[in-house]
Amino acid sequence: MMYIYLPIAEVSVNAILLLGLGGLVGVLSGMFGVGGGFLMTPLLFFIGIPPAVAVATGANQIVASSFSAVLAHFRRRAVDLRMGTVLLLGGLLGAALGVMLFNYLKELGQVDLLVTLFYVVFLGIVGAMMFVESLRAIRSSRRGSAPARKKHTWIQKLPLKMRFRTSGLYISVIPPALVGLAVGVLAAIMGVGGGFIMVPAMIYLLGMPTKVVVGTSLFQIIFVAGFATMLHAVSSGIVDVVLAVLLIVGGVVGAQFGTVIGNRMKAEQLRILLAILVLAVCFKLGLDLLIRPAELYSIGAAEGM
Amino acid sequence: MRFLALILALLVAPPLGAEEVVLGLSKDRIAINTTFDGSDILLFGAIKRETPIPEGELGVVVAVAGPSEPLDVRRKERRFGIWVNVDAVEVDSAPSFYAVATSGAWSEVLSEVEDLRHKISIPRAIRSVGAPSAVKDAQSFTDAVIRIRKAQGAYKINEGAVELSEQTLFQTSIRLPANLTEGAYTTRIFLTRKGQVVSHYDTVIDVGKVGMERWLFDLSRVDPILYGFMSLAIAIAAGWGASVAFRALRAG
Fold it and tell me: Do the Cβ atoms of A297 and B76 come within 8 Å?
C-alpha cells in the first residue's frame, strides 16, 4: 500500500488507487473521444476528495488528457481550427461565468447540489439523445439506407456567417459561440471538459462531419479547461497538483489503449456504449438526490470570515 | 486583568502544588511529508509530590486538540422531491481533531463542574453561540459535528486508555489520523482526585507540512498565478510526454 498525502486536498490517499482511477477513465476517454471528466469527478467524490478540490483538479487533469489526445487528431488533420477558435471564445466567457456562479453558490452552501443537479440534468439529456440516435443509426444501417443529415433551417438564417473549410460548413458564428459558452460554464462547474455535450452538439446542432468533431472539441477543451484551472487556482487555491499528476499519469497511458480499442469498434456501437455509460452515471447521481441521505448534516468551512 | 489572574493563580497555586504532573512526549513535532500516513504519539509522565499520597481516587485525563476553526453546519431537507441543504448553523469554533484519553470511567475521573471549567469533554470543546432564530434545535447541529467527526475518526474518547501505575507513572498513546490539518495541537494533561482537577500541564505539538508538501501549499497561497501556470505546464508536459513515449513504444 502506497499512501500519498495530497498537499491541497489535505487527505492521504492510496497512490495506486489514483493511478488506476486515472487509467480506467483514460481508457474510456480514449475509446469515446471524450475527456472523461464526467466520470472522474464523481469518482473522486466517492474516494473522499473534497468536492471543490475534485472539480478544480479535474479541470487540470483534462488539460493533460486532451492535449495528449489532440496531437493524434492534428496528425490526421482532423481539427477545424477556425471552428475551434469560435467555440473557444464562447468557452472562455462561459468558464468565467461558471467560476463566478460556483464561488457564489459555495458561499450559499449549495455548491454540491448545483454540481449534482448539473450532472443529472446534462448527463440525462445527452445520454438519452445519444441512445435514441444511435439506436436509430444501427437500425437504418441494417436496412442499408444511410442516415439523412438534418437540415436546421433556422440556423441557416442567422447572421454573421463564416466559412469553415475543414468542416465544409458555411454557417453563422452565433450557434457555435453559444455552444462554446454553455460548455465553458459546464467545464467550470462540473470539472469536466464538456466533450460529452460538445460532441453531440457539434454533430446534431451544427451539422459538422463526425471525423473532425472529436479533434476540434479536444482542441478547444484544452484552453477552456486550462482557463478554468487558472480561475480556480487564483480565486480559491483548490487545485491539487499532486492529485492531478497521479490522475494524469494513469490517464494518458489509459487513453492510448482506449484509442486503440476505439478504432476497432463501429461508431454506432461506440456511441450506444457511451450513452449507456452516461445514463448509468446520471441514474446513480439522481438516486442520491431522491433517496433520504444517511447523514442529513454536512460540515463546511465557514465563509466570509 | 492579566495581573489579577496572576495574583489569583498565586493564591490558588499552593494547595494545588501538592501533586504535579511531569510530562514527556515521544515527539513534539509532526512532519507531514508526501508519504505521511498518520502518526502515533506516546505521552508518558509522572506525578511529582513532596507529601504522602493524598486520599481519594486518582485520575489522569489527556486531551489533544487540533487547531479550532469556525464551521458552517448544514442540514438537508426534502424540497420539491429532492434533498437539499436548507438550515445552516455556524459553529463558532470546533477543533479539527480532538482526542481524549482517561485512566478510568469518565464519570469517576472528572466531575461535571471541572469539565465545564476546563472544557475537556468533546461537547465542551466545541463552542457554538449564535444560531439563527429560524433554527430551533441548534444543539442538533453541534451533535452532528461530533457524530460526523467521530465517524471519521477525527474525534475520539478512549476511556481507560491511560495506564496508571503505582499512582505515580502514567502513559498513553494517541493516534493522529492521515488526514491531519496543519497547526498547533494543544495537549493538556489533567491530574484529578475524586473528580477534582488538582494539577494540569499544557504543551503544544507542532504539526506542519514539510518538503514538497510545504512548498506546494505555500506556493498555492502566496503566488496562485504561478502555481496555476505550473499545474498547467506539468499537465501539458505529462500529456505530450506520454503521447510521445507511447508512439515510440509502438513504433519500435
Answer: yes
Mapped onto helix, strand or coil, the DSSP state of residue B195 is coil
The CB-side HSE value for A285 (13 A sphere, CA atoms) comes to: 27
- If contacts are CB pairs under 8 Å, which of residues 110-169 in chain B contact chain A? 140-141, 144-145, 147-149
What single DSSP character describes residue A9? T
Exposed / middle / buried, residue A250 (Cβ in 10 Å: 0-12, 13-18, 19+): buried
Would you kindly state where each structural domain of chain A is located, as residue ranges? 3-290
Q: What is the pLDDT of residues B189-207, one digit of tens each?
A: 988 888 888 888 888 888 8
Q: How does the average pLDDT of chain B come out, rounded? A: 82
Chain B closest-CA separation from residue A85 CA (Å): 19
Cell triple for A96: 468565467
Inform me whether the C-beta atom of residue B97 falls under 8 Å from chain A C-beta atoms: no
What is the Cα–Cα distance from A197 to A243, expressed in whole angstroms? 26
| Strand A11-14 with B19-25, pairing | unpaired
CA distance B2 to B70: 26
Q: How does the average pLDDT of chain A come out, rounded?
A: 80
pLDDT given for residue B233 in this prediction: 92
Interface of B with A in 23-82 (CB under 8 A): 32-38, 69-78, 81-82
- A-to-B residue pairs, Cβ atoms closer than 8 angstroms: 182
Is the CB of A302 less than 8 angstroms away from the CB of B69?
yes
Please state, in angstroms and rounded to a whole number, the distance separating the CA atoms of residues B43 and B201. Answer: 12
Whether the predicted pLDDT of B212 surpasses 50: yes
What is the DSSP pairing of strand B19-25 with strand B39-49? Answer: antiparallel
- The reported pLDDT for the residue numbered B13 is 47
Higher per-residue confidence, A218 vs A265: A218
Virtual CA dihedral for B226, B231, B232, B233, nearest 10 degrees? 80
Residue of B nearest to A240 (CA): B231
Give residue-wise pLDDT tens across range A18-61: 888 888 888 887 777 666 777 888 788 778 888 788 888 888 88
Query: Higher pLDDT residue, B237 or A115?
Result: B237
Q: Give the pLDDT confidence of B16-59 residue by residue, as tens digits.
A: 457 888 888 887 788 888 878 888 888 888 888 887 777 778 88
The answer, for B222 touching chain A at a CB cutoff of 8 Å, is: no
Phi/psi at B209 (5° precision): -75, 145
Q: Which of A248, A249, A290 sits opposite B82 (nearest CB)?
A: A290
Q: With CB atoms and an 8 Å threshold, state whether B209 touches A253.
A: no
pTM above 0.80, yes or no: no
Residue ranges of B 164-203 with Cβ closer than 8 A to chain A: 178-181
Closest CB from B74, B181, B231 relative to A298: B74
Task: Using alpha carbons, list the distances in angstroms from residue A166 to A81, A150, A156, A171, A175.
Answer: 8, 19, 18, 13, 17
CA distance B31 to chain A (A): 11
Strand B98-102 relative to strand B155-158, pairing: parallel
CATH code matching the domain that covers B18-209, chosen among 2.10.70.10, 2.60.40.3880, 1.10.260.40, 2.130.10.10: 2.60.40.3880
